[in-house]
Amino acid sequence: MSYEADITVIGAGVVGLAIAALMSKSNKQVYVLEKNDTFGQETSSRNSEVIHSGIYYPANSLKAATCVEGNAMLYHLCKEYGVEQKNLGKLVVATCDEQIGELESLLAKGQTNGTPGLKIISKTDVKKMEPNIEAVAALHCPTTGIVDTHSLMQCLIAIATRNDAHIAYRTEVTAIQKTADGYRITASNNNEVFAFDTRVLINCAGLFSDKVAALTGIDVDEAGYRLHYCKGEYFSVGNGKNKLVSRLIYPVPPAKTTGLGVHVTLSLDGRMRLGPSVEYVNYIEYSVDASKKQMFFDSAKTFLSFIEYKDLEPEMAGMRPKLQGPGEEYRDFIIQEESARGLPGLINLIGIESPGLTASPAIAKYVDEMVKPLL
User: Fold this and answer.
1) Fewest CB within a 10 Å sphere: which of 161, 173, 272, 284?
2) pTM, two decimal places
């Protein structure tokens, strides 16, 4: 079996699908290869579905730029195609006076990044907005929201396939060979092995993107592409308590961690959940440790006085593909065209964790600009 493609995307998560949807508009032959039975089975379907505003990321970083641009692009896309979303807004709450300085730092960082509408509000104003929240002050982020990620990915697939892109599920890439003018991809589908040639290869394999990069001959340790799996668990909040807040509620981010702290998110159907936790692990598995209930309760109780221990139940877990290991410094997204490594036409996306969902349309635009001179 032999196929020819202009552009091949490895990975049918939200970022890979956003890239395929955009690239398919250029009358190029686009293939998407996904090893799972269907789209978005890993990081894209196991997250809080938050549309982030861009307040947490260093100035001039890819995370900051693509999050802020992606926020506006994502709302526009959802409204254009009827994908359900809600612009709820978010409060980052300080529970003591000593944390107000952290709010001011987040405000300054967000303003530098171009996040619109940010404002620090008083305890009185917090109570007006969220009567059941305990806080001495809060940073109001009006552009934060939530989105139906599954419907978003279905929308991106519809755009791509309408433009004659092809998506192959249960198709795992097993070898990548550089050719004179592109790459020969060897893949397995239901135990049938086949190969085809592509001019441009885009690695959006998420949790496995470092392994795909290694297939091209890149030393992932030397390149700094080695991923670390970071597990995040969620607990749901029941007994009608979901109706006691109307926005997303986040604590001041804890120092020297890779997460944002256990926070309150709301789903589009009104359910409330706490999470995610942060735990580096050596392998991928999605169980929720019920013994962590106390930790979740204690974390949330500092600003949700109405929470009772009996309200919490284990819900789900997800995996983040992090570039930084435990205790290591912040790492930005890697979105790299690899001509400098002798691999022109190969674009690696490594470490696309949060805010990857929000950033996905902006990442697609960024990658598209890389691809244009290659074809």
Assistant:
1) 284
2) 0.96
Shared domain for 21 and 133, answered yes or no, is: no
Which residues, 6 or more positions from 94, have their beta carbon under 8 angstroms from its beta carbon?
100, 102, 103, 135, 136, 137, 138, 252
Amino acid found at 117: G
pLDDT of residue 260: 57
* Whether the bond into 276 is cis, omega within 30 of 0: yes
Contact 37, 177 (CB under 8 A): no
- Check whether residue 213 and residue 258 sit in a common domain: no
Task: Supply the range of the domain harboring residue 103.
Answer: 90-142+228-322
Bond preceding residue 254 cis, omega within 30 of 0: no
Q: What is the amino acid identity at position 287?
A: S
In a domain, 73, yes or no: no
Q: Are 178 and 343 in contact (CB under 8 A)?
A: yes
Kindly give, in sequence order, each residue whose CB lies less than 8 Å from that of residue 336, ignoring residues fewer than 6 positions away. 347, 348, 350
SS3 367: helix
Residue 173 confidence (pLDDT): 98
pLDDT at 269 over 80: yes
Cβ burial, residue 162 (10 Å; 0-12/13-18/19+): exposed
Q: Is residue 233 located within the same domain as residue 199?
A: no
- 58 part of a folded domain: no
DSSP code at position 282? S
Judge if 219 and 233 occupy the same domain: no
Q: Do 218 and 277 belong together in one domain? A: no
Supply angle C-alpha 198, 203, 205, rounded to 5.
130
Percent of the chain clearing pLDDT 90 (strictly above): 93
**Cα dihedral value 189, 194, 195, 200, nearest 10:** -20
Q: Could you tell me which residues come within 8 angstroms of residue 223 by beta carbon, excluding any fewer than 6 positions away?
A: 213, 341
Tokens of 24: 């398919």
Can you give the length of the chain in residues? 375
Measure CA of the first residue to CA of the last residue in the chain; give whole Å. Answer: 24
Which pLDDT score, from 0 to 100, does residue 1 have? 42
Cβ proximity of 53 and 90 under 8 Å: yes
Orientation angle between helical segments 14-23 and 149-162, nearest 10 degrees = 30
232 and 364 both lie in a single domain:
no
pLDDT-based confidence at 123, cuts 50/70/90?
very high
Taking the C-alpha atoms of residue 253 and residue 265, their distance in angstroms, rounded to an integer, is 15
